[in-house]
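[job 0412] stage=fold_complex status=start
inputs:
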Amino acid sequence: MLEKPTWKSTLKGFLYLLPALLILIIFNIYPIIRSFLMSFYTDYDYFNDIVHEYGFDNFIAIFQDPNFITALKNTGIFVLGVVPISIFLSMGIAVLLNNKIKLAGFFRTIYFLPFVTSVVAVSIVWSWIYHSDYGLLNYFLGWFGIDPIAWLNDPNYAMPALIIMSIWKGLGFNIIIFLAGLQNIGEQYYLAAKVDGASAWKRFTNITLPLLSPTIFFVSIISIINGFKVFDEVFALFNGRPGPANSALTVVYYIYQKFYEEWQFGLASTAAFVLFIIIFIFTIIQLVIGRRFVHYN
Amino acid sequence: MDIRLNNLTMVFDDITAVDQITTTIKDGELVSLLGPSGCGKSTTLMLLSGLYKPTSGQIFFGDQDVTKMDAEKRGIGMVFQNYALYPHLSVLKNIMFPLKMKKVPKKEAMERAKEMAELVQIGHLLDRKPGQLSGGQQQRVAIARALVKKPNVLLLDEPLSNLDARLRLEMREEIRRIQQEVGITAVFVTHDQEEALSISDRVMLMKSGVIQQESRPQEMYKRPENEFVASFLGNPPINLLTMKKIENGYQLEKSAHSLLFSNLATYPKSIRVGIRPEDFFVTKDNPRFTGEIIHIETIGRDTLIRMQIGDTTIRALVDPVHQLKVGATCGLDGKEENIHFFDSASGQRIETVERGEKHA
Amino acid sequence: MVKDALSKGIIYLLLAFGAILMLLPFVWMISTSLKSPSEVMAMPPVWIPSEWQWENYQTASEVAPFGRYFINSIIVTILSTIGELLTTILAAYAFSKINFYGKGIVFAVLLGTMMVPGEVLLIPNFVTVSNLGWLDSYEALIIPWIASIFSIFLLRQYFFSVPTELSYAAKVDGCSDFKFLWYVMVPLAKPALITIGLLKVIGSWNAFLWPLIVTNSQELRTLPVGLSAFTTEAGIKYELLMAASTMVILPMLILFFIMQKYIISGVARTGIKG
Ligand SMILES: Nc1ncnc2c1ncn2[C@@H]1O[C@H](COP(=O)(O)OP(=O)(O)OP(=O)(O)O)[C@@H](O)[C@H]1O
Ligand SMILES: [Mg+2]
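[job 0412] stage=fold_complex status=done
writing structure:
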C-alpha cells in the first residue's frame, strides 16, 4: 500500500524525479514543442535565434520539393523491401530454432550478433562486400554466372544493397521477439494437434501462425517504424552521400541535408514533423489493434 | 518502558480501523492483540511502529510522546507476517542490517548478529539466503533481525500464520522463551485465540477497531465482558440463548424453560444467556434444560451432543460415560458461575444478577 | 524415426547455412583487416591471409587518431550509462514507491513523448545545445542522454514487484527512504539494472547521428563518427578500413559474448531496438 499523497510526499516525489525530469524536459519535451513550432517558421535567423515569420510555407515547400517526394518514396520502398522479407526469414528461423534442437542457443547468439554492432561500422564492411570489382558478393554471384553489379554506384541497385544489409542487421532482433512469442504458445496445443494427426505444416498454419499473430503484428509495426527512421546505414554505406543520384535518399537523410548541410531549419523541422505524423499513425495502429490482440489472446 | 495509547484513532477514507483506543502495555509484558479479520489489529501495530501515523490520539513510550516520530527513529523491532527478509542478503547480513543502518562498527555488528542467531538457534545457517530457508527458519531470522538492535519494543504481526500446526506450537513457545529471556515488551498480533491465550500475559480482544476486553487469558475466558467476547473465544463456540422477560424470571423463546429471578425491575426485557459447551453436565436432577438429542459426535475424549429445545439448539460437551442416543431426551445443567448473562440490546455483561431458584 | 532424423538434419543444415551468412561479413572484415594490400584485391578472394598484417591496426591508428576516438567513446558511454542509471533509479523509485500529487499526469506525459521519434528532437536539441555553448564538447555528447523514459518505465515495473512490507521492514530497521532505495531496492533490481545498463552501453557506443552533428573537432569524435570520417581519410585502403571497423565492432561483440544472457532477455522482454 502507498500512503496517500501529501504535500510532503509530493515534494519528496519531485525531488527524486528532479534529475530525470530536468533532462527530459530540456531534451525531450521542450524540443517536441519547439520542433512543432519550428516547422511553422517561415523566416528564421538561426544565429540570433529570431523568428521573423510563421506560416505554412514550409509544408507547401517540402511537398513541392522533388527531393522530399523522392525521399518519401525511397523510404516507402525501403520499408516494403525490408519488413516482409525480414519477418518471413526471422519467423522461419525462430520456428526452426524452437524445435528443441541442441545448438539452439549457439545459433541464436550468431543470428543476434549484428544487433550489437555499430551500424556505421557494419555498413562500411558491407560497402566492401558490395565492391563491384573485389567484393565478396559479386564473387559469389560469379559462381552462378551473374556479371558483376555496381551495387553502390548503380542507382538501380543502391536500394537493394541497402535493403539486403538492413535485413541482415535486424534479423536477430526479430528472431528474439519471435522466439519469445513462440515460447508463449502452450505445448498442449501441439500435443493435441499431434494426437489428431496433423502434419508439421498443418500444425504451423493452424496453431503457430494464428497464435503468433500478435507477435507478427508487433514485429511488423516496430520494423515499419524503425524502417522509416533509416539514416546511419545510408550515410555510411554510400560514404556520406544519399546513394547515386539520390537513389537512397530517405526522409531522415533529407532532414539531415536540409538541417545540417543547408541550414534550412524550418524545412528540416517540417520534414521531421511529417516523419512524426507517419510514425504516429503506426504507433496508434499498434496501440489500438495491438490492444485488441492482447485481449484476444 | 511502558507503552501508553491515548484515544488512538486511525481513519482510512471511510473506515475507522482503530477507534479511540486507550490502554497501557506494561514493561516486559507480552500482550496479544486478538480479533477477527479486519478488526484493526495490524493497523494498531503499524501505529505502534510508526509506519502509520494516527488520525488522532497519542502514543507514549515511557514519558516520551512518539506520536509524530518516524518508524526508523522509534527503536522498535518488528516481525512481519511474511517475514520480509531481504532476499538478496545472507542470513547473517539480514540480521546485521539494522546495525549497519545504525553505523555500528562492522566487527561488533557481526558479533552481535551471531549472538542473536545463537539465541534463536540458527547459528548454522548464517551463509544461506532467505530463499533457501524453511518457514520456521525464516521466522527465526526475522526475530533475530528484530531483536539485534536491542529495541525497546518488539512487534509481531501474525508471525506464525504461515507455518504448519506442529511448527506453530513449537514456535510460539519459542517466541515466549525468547521474549522472557530478553525481557522485552512485546505486542503480538494474531487471529488465533488459542495462540493468544497460551502465549500472552494479557490479551486485548478487538472488534471494529474497538478494544472489547483486555485481561489475563483465563479471565477473558471465564468472565467475558460482553457477548462478542463470549462468542469469539472457545471452540466449539459458546451457546447463546435469547430469553424474554416473564413475570418472575426469563423464559427461553417458544419453550417451557425459564430461569427465575427475583427483583426483576431493573433488568432488560430480553437477555442473552451464555453457557460454554464444556460447562454443561448431564443430570436427571431437576436440570435447567431438557430436550431431544439430535446429533452425537465424538471429539477426542469428549462427546459433543446437539440438543433441541423448542427453536433453539444447544451444543454440549459431555462425559462419554452417559450412554446417550439420538432421539432420546436428556437433561443438562451448568454451574451458577459458568452461566453468563448479557443484555440483549447492548451485549454487555449483566453482573449483579441475583439468581432465583431453579425452575421447578 | 528415419523421417524425424532427416527433418532434424534439414533443420540443422538450414540453420547452419543461415549462420554462415550471418557470420560472413564479420569473418570477411577481420580477414581483410589482416591482409596485405595485394591480398585484399586478390581474385578469387583469399580467406586466410598468408601473413597476418597486425600492423594494419597500427597504421590505421596513425592515419586517424583512433586511440583518441576510443577514449572518447569510452568516456561518453560510461558517463552516459552511469548518468542514466542514476536518474532512472531515482525516478523509477518515485513512480513506484512514492505517492504524490501530479504523479499520474507526469507519468502520462512522459509515456506520451515516447511516441515521438528521436529524429524529431534533433534540430531543437541542436539549437539548445548550441545556445548552451556546448557544441563540440563532452557535455553535448553525454548530458542529453542521461535520462531515458523507457528505462524509467522498465525499472518502475521491476520496482513494483518489491513487496511493500520490505520497505516497512527496512524503515523499522532504521532506513531512510534513500537508504532503502540504495541498500535494498537497487541490489534487488540488479538484473533489471544490468539489462538497462547494457542496452544503454550498446546504444551509446554505436550512436552516430547526434555525435556527428554536435562534434566538429577531431578530438571529440566518437568511434562511429571517426570511422565514418576515416572512409574519406583512408581512401580505398580497405585493409585499414576493415581494421578500423573491427576496432569499433569488437568491443561490443566481446561484451555481448560475456553478457548475452542479460542482453537477449532484455530485448526479448522489452522489444526495443537499439
Ligand atoms: N491502507 C489502508 N487503506 C484503507 N483501509 C485500510 C488500510 N489498511 C487497513 N484498512 C482497513 O482497516 C481495517 C482494519 O485493517 P487491519 O489490517 O488492521 O485488520 P487486521 O485486524 O489486521 O485483519 P487481518 O486479521 O485480516 O490481518 C480493515 O477494514 C481494512 O480494510
Ligand atoms: Mg493483519
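[job 0412] summary: The radius of gyration of chain C is 24 Å.
[job 0412] exit 0
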